[in-house]
Amino acid sequence: MSLKIWGRLSSVNVQKVVWCADEIGIEYERIDAGGKFGGNDTPQYLAMNPNGLVPVIDDDGFVLYESNAIVRYLAARSGATSLWPEDPRARADVDRWMEWQSTGYTPAMWAAFMQLIRTAPDKRDVGAIDASRVKSEKHSAILDAHLGANRYLTGERFTVADIVVGCAAHRWLNLPIERASRPNLERWYQEIAARPSAQQVCSQKPLT
Ligand SMILES: N[C@@H](CCC(=O)N[C@@H](CS)C(=O)NCC(=O)O)C(=O)O
What we know:
Elements: E1 3-6, H1 12-24, E2 29-31, H2 43-48, E3 56-59, E4 62-65, H3 67-77, H4 88-118, H5 126-149, H6 160-173, H7 183-193, H8 199-202
Parallel strand pairs: 1-2
Antiparallel strand pairs: 1-3, 3-4
Residues 11-13, 34-35, 40, 53-55, 66-68 line the site of glutathione.
């Protein structure tokens, strides 16, 4: 097996890579790292990713970090052009949603996630949770409106944009927090979460 993936499955960034590899049908070995597993601060690990973050892949000697770059690489190396289209405009549309996830949606919910899932109840910062909730709702409203007119993020085809935004949506929809009703977002999430390739990620409930 040539592809190795380092990273714990509770990481949203590792989830993207695992979901993508499962969607394409790539065989891989996943090695738990980061969080309670540690192992991401050793000299060997830092030689692969000086940031000491997960995920990292090693594909037969080709080492890569940054989850969205990994997802694109896996699609490209497998010729999975339906997942990451070759047409420049179709590709830009997929890339746009991937950027939106990594620079907007996931950062918006970060504080709520860290406080509600990774912080003891008596240590939680209620103000930070609420500010994060408000930002996440803004993003969720954009997603909901878009999915009211589109089956998937970029139209009729499931792409890697659905995978990476889907991982963020899985987190948002499973946070123990009050959320506005988003019927289009829920409809889309239910559909993509039912894919066999989504099972490792979407079975991660409750969040850890
Ligand atoms: N931009 C990076 C972010 C990676 C990142 O922040 N990873 C987190 C987990 S989601 C991490 O490694 N945290 C430290 C740890 O798990 O020990 C990517 O998309 O891969």
